[in-house]
Specification:
- By secondary structure, this protein is mostly beta strands.
- Helix content is 0%, strand content 49%.
- It is built from no helices and ten strands.
- The chain has a six-stranded mixed β-sheet, with no helix packed on it. The protein has a four-stranded antiparallel β-sheet with strand order 1-3-8-7, with no helix packed on it.
- A hairpin with a 6-residue loop joins strand 4 and strand 5.
- The mean pLDDT is 96.
């Protein structure tokens, strides 16, 4: 079973940037398509970005296209999310998981707060 931990959240102002990292243990990530998800207060958890095995294909929620970039480093067993031009509506707890989420892989997430 993969154990995932998210890092890099914080508080920024509108227009700022953050880079989130997801570190995996117990199993290598190279065999998994991976994704980032987020959950804002009072809302359902939603898909943010996904990256295929080997990184050849990516996909993004419409709300983050052009601002967020997902990447992976299989040598370091990590997946990252570069977030630029942040908006208050990006405020949420961010999680990584397999692109088709596995309920056993959810970590604690990392909080991102964007103030106006």
């Amino acid at each position: 079973q993969v154990q995932l931990a998210e890092f890099g959240g914080g508080s920024v102002q509108t227009g700022g940037s953050l880079t989130l990292s997801c570190a995996a243990s117990r199993r290598p990530l190279r065999n998994y398509a991976m994704g980032w998800f987020r959950q804002a207060p009072g809302k359902e958890r939603e898909f943010v970005a996904g990256i295929s095995v080997n990184g050849g294909s990516t996909d993004y929620a419409d709300s983050v296209k052009g601002r967020f970039t997902i990447s992976r480093d299989d040598a370091k067993n990590t997946v990252s999310l570069q977030m630029n031009s942040l908006k208050p509506e990006d405020t949420a707890v961010y999680y990584c998981n397999t692109w088709s989420p596995n309920r056993d892989f959810w970590g604690q997430g990392t909080q991102v707060t964007v103030s106006s």
